[in-house]
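Our working data are protein records whose layout never changes between entries. The record below serves as our worked example for the rest of this section:
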Amino acid sequence: MGKSDEELEEFDINSTANQKTLFEEMKRSFSTFGPTSKENIVNGLNYILANFSDDYLWRSAIPHDLPINRVADRQRYLEGVLLALTNAPPSPAKVDDFILIDEIGPCGLDYSK
């Protein structure tokens, strides 16, 4: 789902139709992952949702070519991603419920509860 620089400039990530398109593409890609990867992604998104003011982590949750400040309602956006991926609303989480191991290795990023 690549876009030219001009298309990215005109892309409105806050548009419901555009978010639907993004979420459908995310869901398609997500469906190819194994169960451990899926669980890590869902846990990671729940962690980011609980701590969405952290720009470093927030950057992991939106398309990388778009500036993060363009998303007007981060909470609604992340809830939409989780709903698209899991067909269920996000489970409430607290930041203290997670131990963030921010190292990339054979297991990828590990958001352990």
User: Anything to note?
Assistant: Residues 82 and 90 are 6 Å apart (CA to CA). DSSP finds five helices and two strands in the chain. The first helix runs from residue 5 to 10. The mean pLDDT is 80.
